[in-house]
Amino acid sequence: MWHKIIYICIITLVTYILKQLFSETPNFIKFKSKFFIFYIWSSIIAIVLLPFFVFNPKNVKNSLFASQIVKHITKVLEIKWHLRNGKVLAEDRGAVVVSNHQSTIDILGMFNIWHVADKVAAIARKEIFYVWPFGLAAYLGGVVFIDRNNSKEAYKQLKVTSEVMIKNKTKIWLFPEGTRNKDFTKLLPFKKGAFNIAVAAQVPIIPVVYSPYYFINRDKNMFNKGHVVIQCLEPVPTEGLTMDDVPDLINRVRNTMDAVYKELSKEVLSALPPNYPLATVD
Fold first, then answer.
1. Does pTM top 0.85 for this prediction?
2. Residue 82: its pLDDT value, please?
3. CA atoms within 13 A on the CB side of 119
4. What is the per-residue DSSP string for the chain?
């Protein structure tokens, strides 16, 4: 008798999930499934590539190879990425790339343009390392994990990474906001870590701005098809600057990126229907 009850419960649950997934109305299951699909696909690729990464550990070329496979999940999620002024990323030199941070989907955006920048070492918080198998594959792929609660150790790790950046002409990619920004109107304040690295190494800063993810609304469980513009700005030189110049450098870069973010917001939002359910800021 019990096995019949369990069978009926499973069938009912599966039916309910499928109904939610194929529903035209936004719902929690359909919303979370988009992120789940991204995670599962990334994990499968990580498992497949791990044996190959082990023989060439912490090489940024591993991440480049993986990104060219993982990025195809974009078609399933129905997101279109449009890179502008990508030539600044393509230059073969060490640099610090700073971009705004809105969602886990930022990583997918990076994957779609990774081949342009070629040699990239992304900086991520150490908690992501423990999300296996993705975290382990990322580590072997050259991603640098730092403990944001231990500034001294984080700085030491970034110093070593910056030395590799100069030697191998690798770009370091950071999110200076430090956390996900859910505000469509402006960028969050920038932390100084990325700018300290750039000034210490005397390498340029390349600002990269993602347009707002208007198609994602957590409050309304909405994850529609969408279009994202990734705008690369002109490199900001740091030659001759000292640590005393960092506060002014942060303000200049943030103000420029914030202005571009607002311009991109107007561009992508103006094309939407008047009643489009945009996310709101609490």
1. yes
2. 95
3. 16
4. -HHHHHHHHHHHHHHHHHHHHT-SS--HHHHHHHHHHHHHHHHHHHHHHHHHHHTSTT-HHHHHHHHHHHTTHHHHHTEEEEEESTHHHHSSS-EEEEE----THHHHHHHHHHHHH-SEEEEEEGGGGGSTTHHHHHHHTTPEEE-TT-HHHHHHHHHHHHHHHHHHTPEEEE-TT-S----SS-PPPPPSHHHHHHHHHT--EEEEEEPP-TTEETTTTEE--EEEEEEEPPPB--TT--GGGHHHHHHHHHHHHHHHHHHHHHHHHTTS-TT-------
pLDDT tens-place string over residues 98-124: 999 998 899 999 999 999 988 888 888
Mean pLDDT of the region 16-31: 76
What tokens appear for 168 in the block? 């191998």
